[in-house]
Specification:
The protein is α+β, with helices and mostly antiparallel strands. It has two domains: about 55-265 and about 380-460, Zn peptidases (Aminopeptidase, 3-Layer(aba) Sandwich), CATH 3.40.630; about 265-380, Alpha-Beta Plaits (2-Layer Sandwich), CATH 3.30.70. Helix content is about 35%, strand content about 20%. The chain contains 14 helices and 17 strands. Strands 2, 3, 4, 6, 7, 8, 15, 16 and 17 form a nine-stranded mixed beta sheet that branches. β2 and β3 (about 110-115) form a beta hairpin.
Length: about 475
């Protein structure tokens, strides 16, 4: 093991003579958060190693101005004019940084800093800049603009990557327009099912995905969708920087979260049907009330989730509709949508199986028909890669930043990148854990910490 990654970082590049050593050491200490040792090997020069927090904040504010709702809220939906403007803005920064910019058929944007062993798998980072209606300006954005600032920090430090470093802006992490979350990364990870369904997908204006993409300047021929798929060896590692979207780091006063696993949801639609009838005329023994069947199933979901024995298993009945929905009418139909999440796929799927058994039993006991029990999606959870976790921990330690190992309960493009690359995520605190609303906020200091940990993590992985 090398004595310090910083020596590598700082020795790199054409070190000019005559730079004040004491200044170099002080700057290095500021960046690293630990005393710099001088073992007398050659010339060292620290370039400006600080994160440009003001510049990053200015970019975040500028990007937030591309919005279809008034500030402080942000609305930026896939392939809208504002989304196109945001894309142009990101590509502009990539070009300014000297990155090689490429876009794939659906508009995933890649900015690559080519390493001196360019044939090796690259180290990638990135996130999304689309924003659900009336949300905030940090979700996803910190992982794109922050990643570009991390590249900038490394460039200013004189670092020379061995493996190429790449920043990715993913298309449509949010499901707002076409009901498909993580569209870009899901496709990159090789989802044949998605490649097929995108040919037929329409938005709520009945505008097809292909036509919407066309309006944003992406001419998609259905065969091109397969060109989005990436090989398993494209990336050596993928690391995403993101706001926590939860309250833990802020509450504990810990600046960095290192994500060890990403929980994944399974969604289920259920329908019960009964005979309905007049609320006064049909006597209780004669009823088969579809609403009560739904109520019982909702309680069964809670019971099975709690019975899993793990705090990481969560289940929610977020939609419960009754038909015809009149005070004097026995519900003849009920519709439930159930979301079950866990970081353990088997445990989550066991809960779903038990929910299914309960639905069948309830329908028998209450003499209603279980007319639908449909698993809408069942994405597998993902574990972070051990080597990537090690690199993130190494970086946080080098920087003297306290960190906490934690689970991501929301899911991210990283969930899909994990299918084609060793993956890890870095979380930073956000105000009260707020997200998807205008009050979303991360402090410049917390963002700077995240950028530094990301920069060092990528630098370390690049040299492996
Ligand atoms: C949506 O558009 C397609 C093709 O243009 C058309 O056939 C279909 O009827 C439309 N559906 C609705 C609900 O308007
Ligand atoms: Zn996000």
């Amino acid at each position: 093991m090398v004595p310090s990654l910083f020596l590598l970082l700082l020795v790199a590049g054409a070190a000019a003579q005559g730079h004040d050593d004491a200044v170099a050491r002080r700057t290095m200490e500021e960046f690293a958060g630990f005393p710099a040792s001088d073992d007398g090997e050659g010339d060292r020069r620290a370039y400006a190693l600080r994160v440009d927090s003001e510049g990053l904040q200015r970019q975040i504010d500028e990007l937030a101005s591309f919005s279809d709702s008034p500030a402080p809220s942000v609305t930026r939906v896939l392939y809208s004019d504002k989304d196109v403007q945001a894309r142009r803005y990101i590509k502009g920064i990539m070009k300014e940084l000297g990155l090689a910019v490429r876009e794939d058929a659906v508009g995933n944007i890649f900015g690559r800093w080519v390493g001196h062993e360019a044939e090796l798998g690259a180290v990638a980072t990135g996130s999304h800049v689309d924003a659900i209606p009336f949300s905030g300006k940090y979700d996803g954005v910190v992982g794109v603009l922050g990643a570009l600032e991390a590249i900038s920090v490394l460039k200013r430090s004189g670092f020379q990557p061995k493996r190429s470093l790449e920043v990715i802006m993913f298309t449509s992490e949010e499901p707002t327009r076409f009901g498909i979350s993580c569209l870009g990364s899901r496709l990159m990870a090789g989802s044949e099912e998605l490649a097929q369904s995108l040919k037929r997908t329409v938005d709520n204006q009945n505008l097809s995905f292909v036509d919407a993409a066309d309006s944003a300047g992406y001419k998609i021929h259905p065969e091109d969708l397969h060109d989005v798929f990436l090989n398993q060896d494209t990336y050596f590692a993928f690391v995403e920087l993101h706001i926590e979207q939860g309250p833990i780091l802020e509450k504990e006063g810990i600046p960095i979260g290192i994500v060890t696993a990403i929980a994944a949801p399974a969604s289920i639609k259920v329908e019960f049907e009964g005979n309905g009838g007049h609320a006064g005329a049909v006597l209780m023994p004669a009823r088969n009330d579809a609403g009560l069947a739904a109520a019982e199933l909702a309680l069964a979901v809670e019971k099975h989730v709690l019975d899993s024995g793990s705090i990481d298993t969560v289940g929610t009945v977020g939609i419960l509709q009754l038909h015809p929905g009149a005070i004097n009418s026995i519900p003849s139909k009920s519709h439930l949508e159930i979301d079950v999440r866990d970081i353990d796929e088997k445990r989550r799927n066991d809960v779903i199986e038990k929910v299914h058994q309960s639905a069948v039993e309830i329908s028998k006991i209450r003499r209603v028909e279980l007319s639908e029990f449909k698993i809408i999606n069942q994405d597998p959870p993902a574990l972070s890669d051990k080597a990537v976790i090690n690199a993130m921990e190494f970086a946080a330690k080098q920087l003297g930043l306290q960190y906490q190992l934690m689970i991501s309960r929301a899911y991210h493009d990283s969930l899909f990148m994990a299918r084609i690359s060793p993956m890890g995520m870095i979380f930073i605190p956000c105000y009260k854990g707020y997200s998807h609303k205008p009050e979303e906020y991360a402090s410049p200091e917390d963002m700077a910490n995240g950028v530094k940990v990301l920069a060092l993590t990528m630098a370390k992985l690049s040299l492996e």
